Model the fold of this input.
Amino acid sequence: MNCTMIGAASDLGVSRDGTAQGPEVLREHCFPDIPFEMIYAPETIKSRSAQDLRKNEAEINILDKELYEAFLKVKKDGDFTILVGGDHTCAIPSALSSCKACGKTGVLWIDAHTDFNTFRTTETGNIHGLPLACISGYECEELRTFHTGDTVDPANVCVVGARSIDREEKENLKKAGVRVISTDEIHERGIEAVMEEAFAVCLAGTGKVHVSFDLDVIDPSEAPGVTVPEVCGISTEEALRINSIVAKRISDVCSYDLVELNPRNDIDRKTEQTACALLKQILEAVRAK
Ligand SMILES: [Mn+2]
Done:
């Protein structure tokens, strides 16, 4: 199967600069010979104010609409799409375009954060903390005005590797009924068992899974090149094992994201190299599909 990579050069959804350079670094260093379309955030003065609880909302919507149309165009040709972020808000058009193109879809969200805040509960106003709520149809209508069709049923959403959840965000997750598997649970039960369950949740009554991989699920001692590091994460080796299960089950997967590489915070390019290895696992599997 053919695969098209779409880069989202944006850090509009985070509070600090750097994430916008992630996809360009990966295209240049890892994938110079692969179809790789780059979509840039609108040039504008970015809001970084702590008081602004809807930071860059209008600009994010402009970018996400452009991404949504680009994903749909590639999917119409029958190609598999990989989103290379950019901050995690770009997963909104990636996942919702799959709902439109692939039918009923579950979402596997591999991340240290659950990204299930809403404009009502966010404490920072950084919109990259809201995308999973938006994709799951839980408030956040303002962030999916470009999408026509269903959102993802929260019963088909599973977060793997979470360890940093805000108090009110936890309430949102509980109300929506989202299954959250913590880093501790991965270590208690083992990677195979939790991934088996995660796929079962995402595929219950759906045809496909959208997989979204945030590099900050990995411990910052091994993957420092992110914007919001969280200690006590999984190792790089564990991340590659989790991702190899995704690769093995590629026939259940309709699209994939790799997000939040921040080259400015990276040390000796080690997070970049991990990102590259994760993407190559998926690319190889898609090509063999
Ligand atoms: Mn995250």
The first helix runs from residue 22 to 29.
